[in-house]
Every structure is written in structure tokens, then in C-alpha cells.
Write a structure and sequence with these properties.
Helix content is 32%, strand content 34%. The chain is an alpha+beta fold and 117 residues long. InterPro entries: GNK2 (IPR002902), GNK2_sf (IPR038408).
Length: 117
């Protein structure tokens, strides 16, 4: 399972690891699916205004599962402002790994995850 976790309103990373056991290439179907999924999380959580959004993109074996969650007292706009940069950071930091993990220092505003099950 590939998991990336990002929590907080800052990008001060407390722990991060990019596993190199499962990789993909930049021009693969998986890469396209992952990029589409991560770029859709912030806008969809804002539209739904529930603070929670989960989705899948693609077909097996290139299917990507994604989830984002914001604290209940965080506005949709603040949630979007939290989720969007973390999604971009995930794509740029462990750019071709299917199994990276990352946590921010302060678990307080949002959570972003994508996974290959």
C-alpha cells in the first residue's frame, strides 16, 4: 500500500520517507492518474464543504485511491489552502515513488493521503 500523509497548515515536515521499492515512470498511466487525483482533492473538498473527500481515479493496475480531511472548525477556504500545497508537495518530493509517507509537525488543519491498494 502506498501512503502519503500530510497534516497541518505549515510545510514543516517532521518525518518523511520515500520508499524506492515501487516506482513508476513520469509518462505512465499511473502518473497521470496520481496527478489528476492529487490536483482534484483541494477543489472537491471546497465544493463539498463537508471537510471530507475521497475518490479513486483509473482502472487496475493503475488505480489510485485518495482522501482528504479537514478539522470540523476549519473553513472550506482554509481547508483548500491547506490541501492544495500539500498535494503539490507530495507530487514534487517523492515524484516517482508509489510508497512515500510524510507527516507535518502539527496535526491540526488537514490530512491528505493517496494509496495504491
Amino acid at each position: 500500500m502506498l501512503t502519503i500523509s500530510v497534516i497541518s497548515s505549515t510545510l514543516a515536515i517532521n518525518w518523511m520517507h520515500c520508499y524506492d521499492t515501487r516506482n513508476f515512470t513520469a509518462d505512465s498511466i499511473y502518473a497521470t492518474n496520481r496527478n489528476l487525483l492529487l490536483s482534484s482533492l483541494a477543489s472537491n473538498i471546497t465544493v463539498l464543504k463537508s471537510g471530507f473527500y475521497n475518490t479513486t481515479i483509473g482502472q487496475e493496475p493503475d488505480k489510485v485511491y485518495g482522501l482528504t480531511l479537514s478539522r470540523g472548525d476549519v473553513s472550506s477556504e482554509d481547508c483548500n489552502s491547506c490541501v492544495n500545497p500539500r498535494s503539490q508537495y507530495i507530487m514534487s518530493t517523492c515524484h516517482n515513488q508509489k510508497e512515500p509517507s510524510m507527516w507535518d509537525r502539527d496535526p491540526d488543519q488537514c490530512f491528505v493521503q493517496y494509496a495504491v491498494l
